[in-house]
Amino acid sequence: MNTDTAQPILGAGISEGRLLKPIRYPWAYELYEQAVANTWFPHEVQLGEDLADFARMTDEEKHAVTFLMSYFNPNELLVNKALAFGVYPYVNAPEAHLYLAKQMWEEANHCVAFEYVLETFPIDRGAAYAAHVETPSMAAKEAFEVRYLTRMTERTLDITTLEGKRDFVRNLVAYNVILEGIWFYSGFMVALSFRQRNLLRNFGSLIDWVVRDESLHLKFGINLVLTVLEENPELQTGDFADEIRQMILDAVGLEERYNHDLLPHGILGLNADYINTYVRYLADRRLEELGFPAHYGVSNPAKWMAAANDTLELVNFFEATNTSYEVNARTS
């Protein structure tokens, strides 16, 4: 008999979570299967075909692409650290472990994808690497995330305690909801805006693949947060809810300052205020998915994002289904 089915999703015992069937959390295994089907490799995209576009772009446009790479590249690896130290060791369910293992591979793949961009476009790699440390608004975002990761690396959480469970949820919100679900999506919108103007179309395709992965990461993270809250009702206090909500609002402020450095003067059809309206729209969606009311009450200024590809339909996010590229796709 598989006694694992009696275990909650949180737990740090090596003896638990070693039998996959029967599956206790079908949503986790379904996400794993979809992630496997979505497997892709960066060099399948012919980025070299975008070089002519990059050459004729303005300095402000080139700065935006470089700035995005400066942020995305190291933070994909930062997410991996958060998963390895702050999530994987504290989850019992083997189906969740399967998904997390695939997610960590995907984060590594994204890092390689952004290295491919740096290798292909005439971007000063040293300057791009330095920007995430030297640009105050970018460094502030990383400091926000590292603060939560440090809790996981400096000491082992005791998730049998209320505070240990709170720290686990804080880490999930910081990485899955804020970093991947708001900050990354803000950057994706900017990256894909070039394709809206018939520029960097292959770069846009690369971002499409990254976004599709991230949509599953976000869905997994939110499902995991909600499952932990459901299984640990003692976490459901007004004070803790206020803390989580404030984390998200604070993150919006950090992103708004970052976007003014990303686009200090604006480019055709896009400026920092436009991006920040989109950030507030994203924050409202994340709040609602966690059970909070919307805070900003703004409409989506980039409605074209919903049609960019099937993973970007954020309002109907959890119903999105990919059909464009699947490994071992089943046909009827």
Automatic annotation (TrEMBL):
Enzyme Commission (EC) number: 1.17.4.1
Cofactor: Fe cation
CDD domains: RNRR2 (cd01049)
One Pfam family here: Ribonuc_red_sm
Cofactor: binding comment: Binds 2 iron ions per subunit.
Function, in words: Provides the precursors necessary for DNA synthesis. Catalyzes the biosynthesis of deoxyribonucleotides from the corresponding ribonucleotides.
NCBIfam families: PRK09614.1-5
Subunit composition and interactions: Tetramer of two alpha and two beta subunits.
Protein name, as recorded: Ribonucleoside-diphosphate reductase subunit beta
Organism: Humibacillus xanthopallidus
